[in-house]
Design brief:
The chain is of the alpha+beta class. It has 4 helices and 3 strands. Strand 1 and strand 2 form a beta hairpin. About 20% of the residues are buried. The model has no long low-confidence stretch (mean pLDDT about 90).
Amino acid sequence: MDRRKELILQYKEMDKEAGVYQIRNTRNQKILVAATPDLKTINGKRFQLEMGSHMNKELQREWDEFGPDAFAFEVLEVLEEKKEGYFNKKEELKKLEAKWLERLEPYDQRGYNKRPIRRKK
């Protein structure tokens, strides 16, 4: 097997840690809170910002204004997966993200997240 295929196979076999992270502007303390099924993809978010293609326009604008040194990328919590019984990783990750959004409230002047729309019952 050639080296490239071997590396791809090793990557696929690696455990992927899911969790919640934040991108924090150290100048004004605004944050973006997000969940990901693979915390290694945080570097991809940095790359998007460096390329000017991040989906969050306000975060992108401030990245361009303050520069990369003004931002910190931090893991808030790693999702602990149950080894036994039923475990829906996607649902549990959604709950973990909701917990951190409620705790940090990264909306309006405090952050880059959009406020969730409350649905009438």
